[in-house]
Automatic annotation (TrEMBL):
Domain FtsX extracellular: 56-160
Keyword presence, Aminoacyl-tRNA synthetase: no
Protein topology in the membrane: Multi-pass membrane protein
PANTHER family assigned to the protein according to its UniProt record, in alphabetical order: CELL DIVISION PROTEIN FTSX
A Pfam family this chain is assigned to: FtsX
Gene Ontology cellular-component annotations: plasma membrane
Keywords annotated in UniProt: Cell cycle, Cell division, Cell membrane, Membrane, Transmembrane, Transmembrane helix
Membrane spanning residue stretches: 21-41, 179-200, 221-254, 274-297
Function, as annotated: Part of the ABC transporter FtsEX involved in cellular division.
InterPro entries: ABC3_permease_C, FtsX, FtsX_actino, FtsX_ECD
Similarity remark: Belongs to the ABC-4 integral membrane protein family. FtsX subfamily.
Biological processes per GO annotation: cell division
Protein name from the UniProt record: Cell division protein FtsX
Length: 303
């Protein structure tokens, strides 16, 4: 009988405040979708870092005859065979060096034509204008400074470049976008909480006669509060369900059916990452409104 009464009160409360309940559902859905998206974006950045940092190389560019006039690091002329042998020998002695690849000027010219085939500069370049280089794969990509210190300024070396620095700009941009999404999510969450509190207060005011009668017959405070708390929890759970639908739809349509085809080089997150986030979204969607309603009732409903 008590359960039936509580369920009937929940139905009455949801029907009476249908517009505000809908607003709560929408705001909770958007805020939790942003929360889930931010968590997935963080996992995506971590996955990309692990994938690309494992592939980054340190490039040691060697001087050619054209660099002698334009670059002070190559003022003594092009790199000699003895200098190249010494650089290679010193690289192989370092414990942090995993592999060393040599790229000749002809190979560099071929790779340049493949990467920038539409550039108007391709027709004006010749292989002798390209630089030889050693591509060094490190056992720990963070140890770039060891290579930089050992080979920068050495005769025959034009520049030591770390590919990781190029990736850092991308990852910093992605992290900044993630922080912006979290800020918007926090704002939406505040809006959702205010709507929940206001909805509970309006519902409690419209049913003040029923709650007064329940007090007179000796109903406990929690029993009087329970329908209001469950109303908020149900609205939040529905909103969380919509947020889960948005996340699953985003993964299927945006990532699987578009981004993976457009950007095949990126190792995107899988369904396992989405599956880990969904229970958290549902739990937050149910508990957050319930807790907000509980404290709102304690303050505004004298039970």
């Amino acid at each position: 009988m008590r359960a039936q009464f509580v369920l009937s009160e929940i139905g009455v409360g949801l029907r009476r405040n249908l517009t505000m309940t809908f607003a709560v559902i929408v705001s909770v859905a958007l805020s939790l979708a942003l929360l889930g998206g931010s968590l997935l974006a963080r996992d995506q950045v971590s996955t990309m870092k692990g994938y690309w940092y494992d592939k980054v190389q340190v490039s040691i560019y060697l001087c050619n005859k054209n660099d002698a006039e334009s670059d002070p690091n190559c003022a003594k002329g092009a790199v000699t065979e003895e200098q190249k042998k010494q650089i290679l020998a010193d690289l192989k002695e370092l414990e942090i060096v995993d592999k060393v690849y040599h790229e000749s000027a002809d190979e560099a010219f071929k790779h340049y034509k493949e990467q920038f085939k539409d550039s108007p500069l391709v027709d004006s370049l010749t292989p002798d204008q390209m630089q030889e280089s050693y591509r060094v794969k490190l056992t720990d990509p963070t140890k770039f400074n060891v290579i930089n210190t050992a080979f920068s300024g050495r005769q025959g070396v034009q520049e030591v470049q770390d590919q990781k620095d190029l990736l850092e700009n991308l990852f910093n941009l992605l992290n900044g976008m993630n922080v912006a999404a979290l800020c918007v999510m926090a704002l939406m969450l505040v809006v959702a909480l205010l709507l929940i509190i206001n909805t509970v207060r309006v519902s409690a005011f419209s049913r003040r006669r029923e709650t007064g009668i329940m007090r007179l017959v000796g109903a406990s405070g929690f029993y009087i509060q329970l329908p209001f708390i469950l109303e908020a929890a149900i609205a939040g759970l529905i909103g969380a369900g919509f947020a889960c639908v948005l996340l699953v739809g985003g993964k299927y349509f945006l990532i699987n059916n578009w981004l993976q085809e457009k950007i095949p080089l990126i190792n995107f997150i899988g369904w396992d990452a989405v599956a880990k986030v969904l229970p958290l979204i549902l739990a937050v969607g149910m508990l957050m409104p319930a807790v907000a309603a509980f404290f709102a009732l304690r303050k505004y409903l004298k039970v």
